[in-house]
Design brief:
Blueprint: E1 4-8, H1 10-16, H2 26-35, E2 40-43, H3 54-67, E3 72-77, H4 81-90, E4 94-97, H5 117-129, E5 133-138, H6 144-152, E6 157-161, H7 163-166, H8 172-191, E7 195-199, H9 207-213, E8 219-222, H10 224-233, H11 235-245
Parallel strand pairs: 1-2, 1-8, 2-3, 3-4, 4-5, 5-6, 6-7, 7-8
Length: 250
C-alpha cells in the first residue's frame, strides 16, 4: 500500500497569526486538503501557540468527525502536562511524541530513548489508556537498541526525522547516503514490529526515492514543503502532487 499523506497545518496557522485576522483559515484549507484526498491532518500545538492555536484543535476535530470520518487527526508535540490535557480533550487517532524544547523554531531531532526511558514509558502508558496510536520521533540512525526500547515502551510506530535527508536537496550523493540510513532504520523498526511514519522537509522531489526505499512506509506528515507548493499550485493540486509522489493513484 502507498504511504498515506497527512497534511500538517502549522505553516498555514503561522501565516494567519501574522495578523489579528481569521485568514488564511486553518480549517478551510484543511477541508480542501481532505477533499483532495489527504488521509489526515496533523498539528503541533506549541506552548506559546505561535503556530496552531489550542482553539483550532476542536474545530479540526469537528471537521474530521462531521465531514471526513474515514480520515485521521494526528497531534504531535512534547508530552508536558498541558499537551496531555489537549490530547485528552480532543482524542486524535494518533499522537506523535516529539522531543521539542519550547524555544525551538521547529522539530530538529529524534528522542534519546535511553535517556528518556522513564518519561516516555509513563506517557505512552497514559496514551494507551486513552486507546490512541502512539508514534515517537526517531533519528534516521540504524540503532537497534534504541528502537527496541521504543518498542518495549509500547510505541506503535516511529516517525523518522527526515530533516537531514531533506536538507540534501542540492547534494545528490549525500541524499543517497542519508536515504540509506533512513532505510536501514526502517528495516530494523519493521523487524521489531514497529510501524514507520516519516516527516520533515519532504517534497515532491525527494518523496519518491523515500517511498521506494521504504516500501512499507505507513504515513508521511508534511507541512512546510506542501504549504510552499500550495502557494504556486493551490492546496488541492499540491495535495494531489504529494499523493502522486507517495505512489498513490490520483
Amino acid at each position: 500500500m502507498p504511504a498515506k499523506l497527512s497534511v500538517n497545518l502549522n505553516a498555514i496557522a503561522m501565516l494567519r497569526n501574522r495578523r489579528d485576522l481569521p485568514w488564511p483559515s486553518v480549517t478551510a484549507l484543511g477541508r480542501i486538503a481532505l477533499e483532495a484526498g489527504a488521509s489526515g491532518l496533523t498539528v503541533h500545538p506549541r506552548p506559546d501557540q505561535r503556530h496552531v492555536r489550542f482553539s483550532d484543535l476542536g474545530m479540526i476535530r469537528s471537521l474530521i468527525d462531521s465531514e471526513f470520518s474515514s480520515t485521521e487527526f494526528n497531534i504531535e508535540g512534547f508530552p508536558e502536562e498541558n499537551f496531555m490535557c489537549l490530547i485528552d480533550e480532543h482524542r486524535p487517532e494518533q499522537v506523535t511524541l516529539v522531543p521539542d524544547d519550547p524555544s525551538q523554531a521547529t522539530s530538529d531531532h529524534g528522542w534519546d530513548f535511553r535517556k528518556n526511558h522513564n518519561l516516555l514509558g509513563n506517557i505512552i502508558e497514559r496514551l494507551k489508556k486513552f486507546g490512541l496510536r502512539v508514534s515517537v520521533f526517531a533519528d534516521g540512525e540504524p540503532d537497534r537498541e534504541s528502537l527496541t526500547i521504543a518498542r518495549d515502551l509500547g510505541a506503535d510506530r516511529i516517525e523518522l526525522y527526515t530533516g537531514p535527508y531533506g536538507g540534501c536537496y542540492d547534494n545528490p550523493a549525500e541524499a543517497v547516503r542519508m536515504l540509506e540510513l533512513l532505510g536501514e532504520t526502517a528495516d530494523i523498526a519493521f523487524e521489531l514490529g514497529l510501524g514507520v511514519n516519516a516527516g520533515h522537509d519532504l517534497t515532491v522531489a525527494n518523496l519518491p526515492a523515500l517511498v521506494a526505499r521504504i516500501s512499507r512506509l505507513e504515513e508521511v506528515s508534511i507541512g512546510h514543503g506542501l504549504t510552499a507548493d500550495a502557494l504556486e499550485y493551490g492546496m488541492a493540486e499540491s495535495v494531489r502532487r504529494f499523493r502522486r509522489a507517495c505512489g498513490q493513484e490520483v
